[in-house]
Recover the amino acids of this structure.
């Protein structure tokens, strides 16, 4: 779902297959038109980013929620 939302907001053409290696899509317009992107969605900002070194990947687009305030999720919503 996060990839679809990002595709609408940032004009990204998503890959036909959800299992495409390393990339989720390509920018369709703007200064990054044609460049590949891997979209990451995180519910909380915890200072971690899952990355890979595939040479076909040009950019990461990271969307995240608020900064995590505790070390555990106990009592969180």
């Amino acid at each position: 779902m996060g990839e679809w939302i990002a595709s609408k907001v940032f004009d990204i053409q998503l890959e036909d297959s959800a299992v495409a290696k390393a990339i989720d899509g390509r920018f369709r317009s703007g200064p990054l038109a044609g460049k590949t992107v891997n979209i990451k969605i995180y519910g909380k900002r915890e200072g971690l980013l899952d990355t890979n070194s595939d040479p076909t990947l040009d950019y990461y687009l990271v969307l995240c929620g608020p900064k995590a305030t505790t070390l555990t999720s106990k009592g969180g919503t």
